[in-house]
Specification:
This protein is α/β, with parallel strands linked by helices and about 325 residues long. It has 3 domains: about 1-75 and about 155-225 and about 305-320, P-loop containing nucleotide triphosphate hydrolases (Rossmann fold, 3-Layer(aba) Sandwich); about 85-140, no CATH class; about 230-305, Alpha-Beta Plaits, CATH 3.30.70. It is about 35% helix and about 30% strand. It is built from 11 helices and 14 strands. The chain has helices spanning about 40-45, 70-75, 90-105, 110-125, 140-150, 170-185, 195-200, 220-225, 240-250, 280-295, 310-315; strands at about 1-10, 15-25, 30-35, 55-60, 65, 75-80, 155-160, 185-190, 205-210, 210-215, 230-235, 255-260, 270-275, 295-305. The strands form 3 sheets. Strands 6-7-8-3-9-10 form a 6-stranded mixed β-sheet, with helices on both faces. A 4-stranded antiparallel β-sheet has the order 2-1-4-5. A hairpin with an 8-residue loop joins strand 12 and strand 13.
Length: about 325
Amino acid sequence: MIEVSALVKRYGPFEAVRGVSFSVGSGKVLGLLGPNGAGKTTIMKVLTGYHRPSSGRAVLDGRDVVEDPEGVKASLGYLPEGVPLYLDMTVAEYLEFAASARGLGGKERRADRKAAIERAVDACGLSGVAGVRLERLSKGFRQRVGLAQAIVHDPAILILDEPTTGLDPNQILEIRSLIRSLGARKTVILSTHILQEVEALCSEVIILNEGLVVAQGSAEAIGAGLQGDERLECAVKGVADPAEALASIRAIPSVLSAEPAGPGTGGPARFAVTAGKGRGDAVAEGLFDWAAASGAKLLELRRERLSMEDIFVRLTREEPRR
């Protein structure tokens, strides 16, 4: 659905995007993640036809952004970071305007336009405020209206730049739920600074730093690639001799080390176990087998994994690849 190859964008001598390549298919939500100045918004502006690429290629729904910019714009919906609303209009008037601008204007298309607006209003939960002037709406509802204008023509692709910036927690949850439902049937590219948003919404992630892709794939796959030795912590009930249990755990294949993780007085014994890279599953299985064979009960087994925050900090603090 979207194919980007060796994309470069220069502003004079400054290279904002440097050879970025990625692809994303239908029914996927791709998260663009990176610090300020990483190139996220520039990539979105190239994809939406606001800026021409300096070199490289971007194809959306089979249309090249340079060769067929009008066709590209017709096949996508765009929500920029600052929602472009005419505050003196009502919600219905604004969506009527947006639908007409998207090619649903004129008397001959009145029925199509009405149906499209009704679908967008229903999808974005705006039926109760259709007659309200935009200046009277909360920021959360204005974001909903911005999304409604982006989908009123039922595009196959949605490009959303920081869609939850400035919203309160309840509004963020509402907008995320809406994006999740749209992402089930469209191709969505989402730019955000909010790491929890990536984990909550995105099936794939691209992490950018200084105009370069420093990581690409699912959050789990990126974390696995960066993960070194794995740490597991377990709580075991019915351990008669903790020293003997510790020796047995250390003998499990792929266990690099094991230490007591707390006194466990009057309660379960706790152990911190280090497994070799990529061997966490095997060690977890070994702990289950050891507990069962020894007659103990494994009450808790927790694995420490790199969070999205850990991944982001590690990749964007390091010098990007040249």
